[in-house]
């Protein structure tokens, strides 16, 4: 099986229009919209409240990782700790609420390490429009989703998972990148140690607030010897999205977010 690059980072929202307007301020534009898409029954065990239809909208930005907004008709109360977005922009957006780093599910020493890794002073904000708590740093280039933190109970295992998915670490910073010559397919993740927190949920359902899933473009996902990251519980089904027939495989690994493989069907 070959991982070709990032498809998207999932971001749940109860109001896709408001979330789209908010992300437009960070350079995002709509790639496609599916307001009444089948929510395949095989996803039942991965959702807190399954409903047969859901709304998805794909967004892209020149300076950021691709995002897919999802409205499952229900968004859980606690935010997913499986992926914590790290945004960059020249200035914070109006309406962002400043929070203390201790509101995140990580230790103080991890926060200090993050500032070294990203080589920038970091801040924590909550956006009530997105219903999202995230990390942010100031950058003069194009704004957008720069990376995602990947909290884990076993960072070494998480690194093995990323390695099997063709992510490679930067020796100096520890930031793991899914390299691709196509900017829209690039991704950056940073495995960190998870610290228990009452406002966050690890191994969250797919309809939890925040970002519980990373989707990757794949080829040969039915290979009899898949990467070690994909040996957990998995479900596969066919789905037509944006006028394309796709094979979707969802994998719940032991450490990390749900991994979605998106493979075009010829």
Core attributes:
266 residues; eight-stranded mixed beta sheet
Give an overview of the whole structure.
With 266 residues, the chain is mostly beta strands. Helix content is 11%, strand content 44%. The strands form three sheets. The chain has an eight-stranded mixed β-sheet. Strands 7-8-9-6-10-13-12-11 form an eight-stranded mixed β-sheet, with helices on one face. A two-stranded parallel ribbon has the order 5-14. A hairpin with a 2-residue loop joins strand 16 and strand 17. The two termini are 16 Å apart. The mean pLDDT is 92.
Q: Which whole number gives the mean pLDDT?
A: 92
Number of helices: 3
Order of helices and strands: EHEEEEEEHEEEHEEEEEEEE
Radius of gyration: 17 Å
Kindly report the spatial arrangement of strands forming the biggest sheet.
Answer: 2-3-4-1-15-18-17-16
Q: pLDDT below 50 for ≥5 consecutive residues: which ranges?
A: none
Distance between the termini: 16 Å
Helix content: 10-25%
**Helix/strand/pairing category:** mainly beta
Largest sheet: 8 strands, mixed
Outline type: globular
Number of strands: 18
Instruction: Estimate the strand proportion.
Output: 35-45%
